[in-house]
Amino acid sequence: MILPDHFAAYSQPAPSTEAEQPTNDTNTKGKTTIPVKTKKKRPGDAKSLNAPYIKLTPIMADDDKDVDMDVDTKVAPTHKSKSNNLQDAVLHCMYCMDVGAYIWKCSSPTCKTLACVAMAEGDHGCINAMPDEVTNTVTVEESTFRCPQCYRAESLPVPYIISGYSVRQEYINRNNFPLLSVFLTWSGFGRDFASDIVQRTLKEHFRRTPSLFRIASRKLKSGNNRPSALNPDFKWLAEHHYRGNLLVFIDTHSDTATGDLVVAGNALNSNSVPIHELLHNYIGDNLRSTAQQISILNASPTTGPFIRRVHDSAVRLKRFVEMNIFDFVFAFAGVSTIDLIVVPALNRF
Questions:
Q1: What is the DSSP track for 193-226?
Q2: What is the rounded distance in angstroms from the CA atom of residue 274 to the CA atom of residue 271?
């Protein structure tokens, strides 16, 4: 569930970085100088393509035109690194078109897919072949490597992590169950940026299986709180025997003092209610019954059988998770966080 755009995110703070404080130097005529620290690059960090020096000889012309340059092919052979992670330049990843640090070929007899592989921290690679951080086990090796397409063709799970953006969007690690998405958006917004970008993201992920995806949208405004309007949408999930996921996306403002969510009015004169009342008035018993059915199917139930009252403070919204009402609750602080926080999380929903 995703909550309104004025909540603070429950996330770890970014690690602090060292920064030199500006100092005033009297010898610089009052100017402020800021020392800059640069990180020295270790020789072992270099992963670039080997480009040997080529000697160029100018051609002497009789006119005043610009001097052309000619390539002298008679150059002394350059020393080549013996590192086995240097690949022939003609081999390139078929996903990102880069030469990469390592290029592996799919071991399937009829497949010729090439992919760049990351073997260690700092390596660029669409395929992550680094050892597990906890067990130190390797999930994929060059001799047995199979590309994601071959796994998909046989309806098999991909045993390794896909890091490349272009291929990750197709083979991201998420379940294939039906998804019912309920979007509740305050009518006072000039445009539905937050819900629009999330809906577009979800539609793209279900582009190959549109029958497994359904969107229900309702405006938060006076006289529109009719839970029965969502009955056809929850009936659709029931027709899938509740073997699916439910996402509730609430996009509205919140009261600064109480954390209540705005459901009516305008920017100058708005009205708000606690979140449990909003859910009851716009979704009603559909949420309770659906949560019950889904929790029965789960091996370890994480969705609660009914809605419990949560106090008005936004800080205590995490109680929805602690009380096993929802699997998780997102709280974020503005539309600028949609791309960085919401969309990546939804990609793994």
A1: HHHHHHHHHHHHHTSS-GGGEEEEEEEESTT---
A2: 11
pLDDT in tens, 211-256: 889 999 998 888 888 899 999 999 999 998 888 888 888 888 887 7
Dist CA 342 CA 214 (whole Å): 19
In whole angstroms, what is the distance from residue 139 CA to residue 164 CA?
17
Pairing of the two strands 261-265 and 270-273:
antiparallel
- Assign 142 to helix, strand or coil: helix
Would you say residue 8 lies in a domain?
no
Give the residue from 101, 97, 90, 88 showing the smallest Cα distance to 48: 101
The angle at the Cα of 192, spanning 190 to 193, to the nearest 5 degrees, equals: 110
Angle between the N-to-C axes of helices 285-297 and 231-239, in degrees from 0 to 180, rounded to the nearest 10: 10
Domain containing residue 114 = 102-163
Residue 217 in any domain: the answer is: yes
